[in-house]
Amino acid sequence: MPGLGTTFGRGGATTALPDLMNADTILIMGSNMAENHPVGFQWVIEARERGTKVIHVDPRFSRTSAMADIWAPLRAGSDILFLGGLVNYVLTHNKDFREYVVNYTNASVVIKDDFQDTEDLDGLFSGWDPDQRKYDPHSWGFAGASVGDDAEHFADGGHAKHSASMSAPDFNGAEHDRTLEHPRCVYQILKRHFARYTPEMVESYCGVKRELFLKIAETFCSASGADKTGNICYALGWTQHSNGVQIIRTAAILQLLLGNIGRPGGGILALRGHASIQGSTDIPTLFDILPGYLPMPKFKVNSHNLEAYLRKHQDKTGWWWNIDKYIVSLLKAYYGGAATKENDWGFGWLPRITGDHSHQGYFIEMMDGKVEGLFVMGQNPAVAAPSGRFERKALSKLKWLVVRDLVELESASFWYDSPEVERGELRTEEIATEVFFLPAAGHAEKEGCFTNTQRLLQWHQKAVDPPGDARAEPWFIYHLGRRLKEKARLDPRPRNAGLNALTWDYPLKGKHNEPSVEEVLQEINGRSLPDRTLVKGFVDLKSDGSTSCGCWIYSGVFPAAGQNRANDRKSRDFYGHGWAFSWPADRRILYNRASARPDGRPWSERKKLVWWDEAQKKWTGLDVPDFTATKPPDYQPPAGAEGDAAIAGDRPFILHPDGLGWIWVPIGLADGPLPAHYEPWESPVRNPLYPNQQTNPPAMAKQRPDNQYADSPDDRFPYVMTTYRLTEHHTSGAMSRTLPHLAELQPDPFCEISPELAAERGIENGDWVTITSMRGIIEARALVTSRMQPLDIDGKRVQQVGVPFHWGFRGLVKGDAANDLVAISEEPNVRIQESKALLCNLVAGHRTQGKKALEQLEQQIRGQAWQ
Amino acid sequence: MEGRREIAMVKEFLTRWPVVRQILTHSDGTGVEAMSDRTRNLAPKHHGAQVARSVCPYCAVGCGQLAYHKDGKLISIEGDPESPISRGRLCPKGSDSFELLTHAGRETRVKYRRPYSTQWEELDLETAMDMIAERVWEARERTFVEKSDGEDVMHTTAIAHLGGATLDNEENYLIKKLFAAGLGMVCISNQARI
Amino acid sequence: MAISAFLTDTTVCIGCKACEVACKEWNHIPADGFTFTGNSYDNTGSLGASTWRHVMFLEQPTALGPQTTGTEDPFRWLFLSDVCKHCENAGCLEACPTGAIVRTEVGSVYVQPDVCNGCGYCVVSCPFGVVDKNHEVGTAFKCTFCYDRQKEGLMPACAKACPTQSIQFGEINDLRERAQLRIEELQRRGYNDAQIYDPKESSVGGAHAMFVILGQPEAYNFPPAPEVPTVHLKSAWNAALISAAIVFLVVCLAFAF
After folding, report:
1. Domain, as residue range, for C233
2. C185 and C98 both lie in a single domain
3. Residues in B touching A399 (Cβ below 8 Å)
């Protein structure tokens, strides 16, 4: 998300699934779309049947590859090399959509004098602090513009808009060269930066033969210009890396150069993995953001009071100028009447971030005995989180654990049937964790809305009551909160100010006293106060305390009583308007101003989407314009203009202070203004571009005795391993391995290996094999198949081992968890783990059972063969 | 009167008898004449049922689903043809949504494990909720940090939360509202990153 | 009612098995064993009493038409959802002694579970190995063509679920035409071995479930020339009559001398 967020302005897919039908070419990479989004894939098939070329680049030949026009095998972890190769191709052969690039991106911006590139500093950008292991981004700024001048100035990523470490930038004075020839303009720096990402480099280090790479480059890059567009689809094959955000950035840069963003058949479709994972980022159960991507207050950095917070985050120009309206309205939603101007709207009651409170961060604290209690709701860390052995042992250090789910999954039963208990590492009688398992309601047993991968809020109606004691989450949270508020009522210490102020009066209904979910959605939509009339959208929100809004980007989903737009079911056009509600403001294709020329006419009849209607003096077309409707294309902002008024009529990326698509990201990312290739934590080769910077400099390995890494390369672990999903199962298996109809489709855990690797190790198809990494040991069946291609990397033969991660120790079909092999590590911006590229070893035979399994693993780590 | 009813019954029986039907319709006994009552009265199992418009709980495509139910019981779940995203189609997981909600392994009662115990016990829901609230309050009491170096901290790092990507927006909203804005919990995460 | 049919097209099948699950869900068919086969992604094995849609996975050392793969040798991975053919002349129907198997008004072949006595004659008479006996229940089962759904104008569960409409459902002549157009289109695009599997020339007389396949039918376990066993009925009876006559003659002669 920060990859898309920093480049374009919002962290979410820029387009909608049906729009794939309009693409002239589709690149699917870091995704196995046919297997993991099968029904979404129908749109790729529709496109293909109309002549669209479908390209799939992936370590494995999967069911998606079988449907593609071109498949290229890729070494897991070399994505930036490949995508950088495409960028290099565009720049070398002048394939960029020049008019789009000059007018709609910051390619023309001149960068400060003191900037130095990774090509100049052998793998580092200027500003690197080797003690802090962070970058100071001041030299990444624009010549002539200030990028904030705070005392504390380390580049920090995170999910929030921009970063929370610098004062909001002022871009008005930036110098541009629209001929793109100035040696320090972004375009020229980009050229130099990607100069060594040649087809030869791609062949040697990605494993994609030169001719095949060029064919892909020609095919994808030809779908560009006024008449053609190309789309990119990606999923966790790009995100789950130590440089995941930068992989996405490279694709985003490519799409800006080719002029594909905001246009029909263009865009980047981030394919997310769970029913409402987009929703759980928009209305976040994440530590570093508040609803609508507002930053959480950070201790000593921006949280002294609301004014300090706004000074940090309120851009003078662009849509984020309105942030004060959104944070105040959120505080009014949380704290109601108790939030007043005098007490800063209750800003001081919000908790401050003081460190790494992410999943991996606090599980490490948990392992060290510093976390007492944990709620797990609809997630299964014992199987799906990285380093399963670590996760399960950490759970055993808790004082108490509350698990809510449909079945008794591995995270609830670890204390008696985990591999750690089997191996004697944990003894049930010695585990102090008090465990509460509360059965949860399923989706058809409650109402509420999910936000899908294309930002669509869809309401699901309730069909039947949940069985027995099963309840929906609103019931649980509401009644837990009610009890806690009761305790706080008589305890007016400052720590309870927020809890006492919290508005918690939802109407209750039904025999179980369930809070009204519609009421919650209305709170999310926003109201004007004190009359509580629902607001029509975020443009109605105010910073004077007269409005409340639980999530500004969702505002408009419930614009009037009885009008739950998430529950609308009458689709009236190709983009599905009339069916559900797409944030923001029901726009289906983001940045769609860019589908028109600077003068407001469509780029072409074939690719028209939104255009300026001179007669009606407004933007119109096939989608809701992602632009101020009445702002004419030739609007020039007057000097000193603020907010959206400072964005010209030909600048489509309205959330950015300058309205441009950011090929160059001056602030907001921890690891650089441009993507650069680094190897994964564990790799079979040294970094060919920067031998002295093997891995992404600010990424965090969290290395400790119980979280170790192999060398790169490492004789003990000679194979590249990647983890992934299958169509038949779902994530940790709690929703699929427990169901007979799905369990029988893929019963045993398996790995996929090439016939060459099988021959090397004396393995026949279907045999059990044991796979080890520095972290763990598992067994799986071997599927020997030509779909796994050995690659020639830098003159060496590299074998890749594919392991689906669905299996765990409970269910109708069980098996070892692939994630036991993955390390705990954090990408520097969003702290995601690297599940997609690691090193392993593989030998024929079942793994040993019980305690001896640990001995077998130890032997492997010592580099000895197991007897 | 009796006689007429008996004749009617015999007539009815004869015309339902496949052999007789076969003769009367000059057919070979392999067509509709050979159908039993059950076959002739066959109707889809969701005939006459109510339908709730739902959304698939698995991946992020968000396929529309029709959840058929009658008298408080779920009958079947299939695709919603009116969805412009999915057009009525479902993958194998979405197609198995009925089993997801009704399979034998589904838990319907609270389970409680005492510290150091080797087994689950039963516990009633309200007691469980009371106990959980106690645990939260007690942990928060001991670990809450109000200020540090004169600056507000207003948090506890001793209680954490994990979960969200399969939960509704309203659920995630309430969780963040209570846990963060109310209780000062900062260790909140879910499957989402990026 | 119009005669309905299936057209299942390998070229857009993504091998997801939604059809298998949707069918089992609708018809309350249980899972039939958690057995890993090692045969690509196909752990279902074949059609049977409790599997009425079966997705095949074919990994072949052949190029897929104009597809470019980065494999060292030619390679393709094909998927196809197999189903009861609902033959024009159905072996199972001909063999059934109880009238349990009937031809419905929509042209499908339907096994009436309340009439079937479990004799198993249908099982050996199907040239495709589709219908099978459930040994716990004691009667024969196969695809019902969702007769209950069709009665209310609904399409079969598998066709509705199929994400890419590899399984098409409609009026039989429409689908026959569509199949022909599809083959022509595919061949034009370079899929030279595209063909329709609809065995009209043999005694089966054509199927109400047709397939667009690439390569030979045998690769999909489809008999190239399936026969309805009763096609041999006349010659079988003749042979029996002649044999009986010969035996009678010989016996008479034996008594004569």
Report:
1. 228-257
2. yes
3. 135, 139
